[in-house]
């Protein structure tokens, strides 16, 4: 008896060890599902009819068989017949059976979309995953698996889904030495040194994860580019990666260093109007396509933060972009030209410059150029108003750039679910063509009828075992993919999907984790930069608070430049009496924001310098409101901690502890943010922190003395 018990115990132990929960499997866990559901699904999926042979369809098939086996606990067999309960998968081209079904939904579906439907043929009930192309089949399969993993009913499927954006791309800010600019999850997953001979199994897992959420492109290299990536030695390595990704429907893109013709081409100039330079890029591009026949194109950061660009030669951004666009056009490639630019001379207001540079160039870009615009006009702050270029360049397709790596959002230590931030931007109304001209409609091309569309997410992925440093960073990767596919999905819906696949589908777990996620962004805004404050982080590494920092090579890298605190008040006056950045928005948007009394308080100090004693909507004056907000942020953190603590019995010990410890660090850092910022701003407001709030534990001098020379990602 005792011996038997012991054996059972040991068996369980070894099972537990084999499944140490380190987060590596992301949302693709495919563990056995609950018995009742399993029985139901097993009756509904009795066999699989899969007729596609292409590499992408083979991937879909493998994923489907593996996923089902994992979740149902036994293999589902393949069948050639159209029997009762068969799951039919394919496209009309690849599968005669799918073709014979003549699904009307396929007519309007377009590329990459899929149909999931339940139908009856000759009295037999079939479940169908159909698409017009291979990629659609792959995405349909992953969506079907997602339905099962989250315990959805598959009895009467009637679902049509197609991506709203074409180029759904991750941007890796990864360097050739494997460091990652603004990376907080270890080193780059690209092991350049050992490529192309050694293919880390992770490359495949990376591709799977992306394909499962519809990401179809990846820029392998940092926007602060290294020309060496375009040399044969590195192109061999790029080819090896592209070969791994192709069966998952993922294309490779590279960053192009504008001065490459000089640096690796031996030319005297990189002037985009010089015929020799143009020829060099044409030849180079041709060479790239010899290595990677489906190469996606180039991403370029030019004339920004010291990067070379067309302006070095007295040319403009369109001249630069068009030269590259002409080089990739014969091969079907595109150019993603970034609008994150600001001049090397200190300007009157940094947030105005992208608009000033790009707006006059509207209509001057080749049709295969996307101008890639960050969500806000400054730089991935906890909160910014939408970028004024959205809606201002009707003749140019604009590509949204979000940052998944949390450079300014607590890095990989803070639990911050970014979907609400993305949605806030996408739902903003540019008024470009009257009410309802949302940023989403600019982005998906529907506002102006653009056919080339795209979105970029600066990746938060590194070689940490759990990929993103913080387990919840995975949710941002996931949400990015899902929103790139369909920007009408809700933050809450995406969180529910992710939690269901990552932790559990139990209603209580879903509700609690979702609650934590949905409040996390606002909490972080409150304890870091409430009321429209921005860029008051530590200098250079952007870690922790440093609103006092006033030493840098240029003004507009300084917290004091951005918050403009003085004895009168706080905030950057961007109205007509100040920098007038507001003038870059549509008059209707301007009207909403130009009066401090009616301005959305989330953006108040972004647009206005407000007096310390000025009463706000709550009835509190600015100083009191600041104290309130900072404390509200820290309080939210306490709430998130206790909600997580309540999940101890529901979540495996490894992942539970990981999140719990990080929430502890986040709570300390939130407190540090609150205390340091309030003490500093108090030197101007000259008012006490109301006694109902905790008083700072240390002095302002102490907070000012902190230094972090080795903070990551810098
Ligand atoms: C800023 C980062 C910097 C990037 C830059 C960019 O601090 O490292 O190079 O953005 O987007 O947020 O080019």
From TrEMBL:
Keywords assigned: Carbohydrate metabolism, Glycosidase, Hydrolase, Polysaccharide degradation, Signal, Xylan degradation
GO BP term, pick one: glucuronoxylan catabolic process
Highest taxon of source: Bacteria
Active site residues of this protein: 305 (proton donor), 379 (proton acceptor), 407 (proton acceptor)
Enzyme class: hydrolase
Signal peptide residues on this chain, from the entry's feature table: 1-20
All copies of domain Glycosyl hydrolase family 67 catalytic, residue ranges: 148-467
Catalytic activity line of the entry: Hydrolysis of (1->2)-alpha-D-(4-O-methyl)glucuronosyl links in the main chain of hardwood xylans
Keyword Cell division among UniProt keywords: no
Domain Glycosyl hydrolase family 67 C-terminal: 468-691
GO CC entries: extracellular region
Gene3D superfamilies the UniProt entry points to: Alpha-glucuronidase, C-terminal domain, Chitobiase/beta-hexosaminidase domain 2-like, Glycosidases
E.C. number(s) listed in UniProt: 3.2.1.131
Stored PANTHER family: ALPHA-GLUCURONIDASE A
Family the UniProt entry places it in: Belongs to the glycosyl hydrolase 67 family.
UniProt subunit comment: Homodimer.
The protein's name: Xylan alpha-1,2-glucuronidase
Protein source organism: Cnuella takakiae
């Amino acid at each position: 008896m005792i011996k038997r018990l012991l054996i059972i115990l040991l068996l369980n132990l070894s099972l537990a060890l084999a499944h140490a929960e380190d987060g590596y499997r992301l949302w693709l866990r495919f563990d056995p599902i609950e018995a009742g559901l399993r029985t139901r699904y097993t009756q509904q999926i009795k066999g699989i009819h899969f007729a596609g042979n292409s590499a992408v369809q083979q991937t879909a098939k493998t994923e489907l068989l593996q996923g089902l086996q994992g979740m149902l606990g036994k293999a589902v067999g393949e069948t050639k017949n159209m029997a009762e309960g068969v799951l039919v998968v394919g496209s009309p081209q690849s599968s005669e059976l799918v073709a014979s079904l003549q699904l009307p939904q396929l007519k309007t579906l377009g590329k990459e979309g899929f149909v999931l439907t339940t139908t009856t043929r000759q009295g037999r009930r079939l479940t169908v995953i159909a698409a017009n192309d291979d990629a659609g089949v792959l995405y349909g399969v992953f969506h079907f698996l997602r339905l099962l993993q989250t315990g959805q009913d598959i009895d009467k499927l009637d679902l049509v889904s197609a991506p709203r954006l074409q180029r759904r791309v991750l941007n890796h800010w990864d360097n050739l030495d494997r460091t990652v600019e603004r990376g907080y999850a270890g080193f780059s997953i690209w092991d350049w040194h050992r490529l192309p001979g050694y293919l880390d199994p992770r490359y495949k897992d990376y591709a799977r994860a992306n394909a499962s959420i519809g990401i179809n492109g990846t820029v392998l290299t940092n926007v602060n580019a290294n020309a060496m990536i375009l040399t044969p030695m590195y192109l061999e390595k790029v080819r090896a990666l592209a070969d791994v990704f192709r069966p998952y429907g993922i294309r490779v893109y590279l960053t192009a260093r504008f001065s490459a013709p000089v640096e690796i081409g031996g030319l005297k100039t990189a002037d985009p109007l010089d015929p020799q330079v143009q020829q060099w890029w044409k030849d180079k591009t041709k060479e790239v396509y010899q290595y990677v026949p489906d190469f996606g194109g180039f991403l370029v950061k030019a004339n920004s933060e010291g990067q070379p660009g067309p302006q070095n030669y007295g040319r403009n951004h369109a001249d630069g972009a068009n030269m590259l666009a002409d080089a990739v056009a014969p091969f079907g490639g595109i150019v993603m030209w970034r609008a994150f630019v600001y001049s090397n001379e200190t300007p009157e207001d940094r947030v105005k410059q992208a608009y000033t540079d790009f707006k006059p160039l509207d209509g001057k870009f080749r049709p295969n150029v996307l101008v890639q615009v960050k969500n806000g006009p400054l730089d991935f702050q906890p909160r910014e108003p939408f970028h004024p270029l959205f809606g201002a360049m009707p003749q140019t397709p604009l590509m949204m750039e979000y940052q998944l790596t949390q450079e300014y959002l607590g890095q990989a230590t803070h639990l911050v679910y970014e979907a609400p931030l993305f949605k806030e931007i996408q739902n903003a109304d540019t008024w470009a063509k009257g009410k309802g001209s949302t940023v989403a409609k600019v982005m998906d091309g529907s506002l102006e009828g653009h056919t080339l569309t795209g979105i970029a997410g600066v990746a938060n992925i590194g070689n940490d075992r759990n990929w993103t440093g913080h387990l919840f960073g995975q949710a941002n990767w996931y949400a990015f993919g899902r929103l790139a596919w369909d920007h009408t999905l809700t933050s809450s819906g995406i969180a529910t999907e992710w939690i269901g696949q990552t932790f559990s589908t139990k209603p209580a777990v879903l509700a609690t984790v979702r609650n934590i996620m949905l409040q996390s962004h606002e909490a972080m805004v409150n304890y870091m930069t409430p009321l429209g404050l921005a860029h008051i982080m530590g200098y250079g590494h952007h870690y922790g608070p440093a609103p006092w920092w006033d030493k840098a090579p240029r003004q507009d890298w300084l917290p004091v430049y951005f918050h403009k605190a003085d004895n009168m008040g706080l905030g950057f006056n961007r109205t007509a009496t100040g920098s007038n950045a507001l003038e870059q928005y549509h008059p209707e948007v301007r009207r909403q924001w130009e009066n401090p009394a009616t301005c959305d308080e989330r953006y108040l100090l972004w647009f206005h310098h407000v007096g310390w004693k000025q009463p706000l909507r709550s009835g509190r004056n600015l100083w009191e409101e600041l104290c309130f907000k900072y404390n509200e942020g820290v309080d939210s953190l306490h709430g998130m901690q206790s909600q997580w603590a309540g999940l101890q019995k529901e979540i495996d010990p490894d992942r539970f502890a990981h999140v719990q410890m990080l929430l502890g660090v986040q709570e300390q850092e939130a407190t540090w943010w609150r205390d340091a910022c309030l003490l500093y701003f108090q030197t101007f407001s000259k008012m006490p922190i109301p006694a109902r709030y905790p008083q700072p534990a240390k002095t302002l001098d102490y907070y000012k003395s902190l230094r972090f020379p080795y903070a990551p990602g810098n």
